[in-house]
Amino acid sequence: MALIGGPLLREDIELFQLIEQVGGRVVLDGTEGGGRTLAAPLDRDGLEADPFAELARMYFGSIPDPFRRPDGMLQEWLGREIAARGVRGVIVHRYVWCDKWHAQVYRLRETLSVPVLDLDEAGDGLGSRARRLTRLQAFVETLA
Amino acid sequence: MSGWPRQITLDDWDSRYAELRAGGLREPEYGGPLRRHACDGDLRLCKLRFDNSAAALRLWNFLLTEEDRLHQARDAGKKIVGAMKDLGTVPVMAYALPDLVAFYPDGAWWTPCIMEGSDGLLKVADTLGVPDTFCPVRAMLGAFATGTQFPRPELLICSAGATCDDFSAIVQRLYDLGHEVLWWEMPHRRRAESCENKVVLPGGFTCSAGQVEMVRAGLCQVKESLELLSGSRLTNEALAAGIRRANGVRRLLGELRGLVFKADPCPLPALEMLIAEMLAIHFCSDPQETVEVLSGLLSEVRGRIAAGAGIWGTAAVRVFWVNPVADLRVMNLLEECGGRVCGTDYMFCHALDLIPEDVPPMEALARMALADPMVGSSRERAERICRDARMFGSETVVVSRIPGASHCGLEGGIIAEVVRQELGVPVLELEVPPVSDAMLPTLRTRLEALVETVREGRRG
Hints:
The structure holds 2 protein chains of 2 kinds. In chain A, 45% of the residues lie in helices and 13% in strands. Chain A has helices at 14-21, 44-49, 51-59, 72-85, 99-111, 129-143; strands spanning 2-5, 28-30, 90-95, 116-121. In chain A, helix 1 (14-21) links the parallel strand 1 and strand 2 (28-30). Chain A is elongated. The model of chain A has no long low-confidence stretch (mean pLDDT 93). Chain A binds chain B through residues 66-67, 69-71, 96-100, 102-103, 105-107, 109-110, and chain B through 128-130, 133-134, 158, 160, 165-166, 168-173, 175-176, 181, 183, 406, 409.
């Protein structure tokens, strides 16, 4: 599975265990705190030539995110990583108020070669664990 | 003054139009009876109440024929520019170049209201993955997908960054559908740090000189694209002249707002004033005619004030209105409940403030863009609302939420808190969907309660 989306709250960390519990495994963490938002490796030559330009390249030039316009970098990154890691399904974990991730869901379903689960949550810590579990379970079953 | 002022229905306009024609009314080529727009599908007109002046007739006809104007421009070989989200910046540049016509595709957000949903634009947006959890501006996506509302622009320009999340996401969907978009970055406006140079923006907000420079650089890229499209160079002189023309429109609107919001009795209804203010954003695709339309309204208003004529007397409660309504009918409703609009922030105050003419023109545009009330904090916006409400003598503030609009989630509470602290007047927050018929009883009760509260306060 690829788990992608915005920042995870403390109570969301259990998502990883729940996915394993229903028979899945996260091989790509594309949430805000995952590998997606790591800056590109520092280029020493670039740093010496122009430190500000190098910093801009490391951060602005490499981190894919739905806030970017256009957001093609996110699509490219996902396509590449999904192929490289043998991802069979993508879980988009988004908060109901986050329009940018919400609008991504339809686009991802259009463009990705694997099924996409739209896991929308209120992010208020009061979400139903049962709902979350059922949806993950159903998603994994469809992939089996 | 063209007769004693009153509000009339579309049915009344049939006979009123005949009366005006018989009295020698001269109209521009887009003129004609309002009824024809309703027959063409603008069904909401049947439920609105309009000002009965010839100037208001011209305003409505100007607004409701924009699509025809865009098609005529295309047929005449002009290039069409869709200026999204900036609400007043890019059109000033576009109209300073020959053979370009700029319009405001976001304006399609009112189509589901005007056509009472018969346009189907929101349903099309649903099918494109943008459901009703997004702002009704998603109708724009439907308009582009169906191609029914306006000709496809040669160039689409949109500001990104400090932009409503839902709008940004909608335009990204538009891009995904194959519409090239030129993005320019608008930073979140912040006050200058002690180590930075401070710039005072039109309308009184401030920011750092660095932010002005950043926006200026972005707008220079937009300028290059417009030049490429037009095939002409946009010189500083031409842009400065364009700014002066835009300021001409803004001065007319400034005078109109000042007269209408302060006069007793109220010389022009809220609905016509809302439409008039909207003209400042992109001149309804014809800057020269915008001047004529506004001049006509101003002349009518001056005549009414001189004659002591108006529509709402001193009993009407003076309301400052925040955010445009998704359903135009609600502007009528406010007046039916005993209110009148005396001050507005329809999210584009920066399109009403004068653009500086004493700095280089690209910098002037950057300053104007940064004066957008929506690119800074809600608290700053609220402070401006208080200043303007004080100036117009508003007795209460209504914050009108737009369903699904990301900025509406929290701003109302912040604005209400600041207004109550600074002005000590009642604040009402309500939500207006594109067609509010089902909500009208609730909205009426809430507005009536607000009016009663203010009147009770007057008795002190």
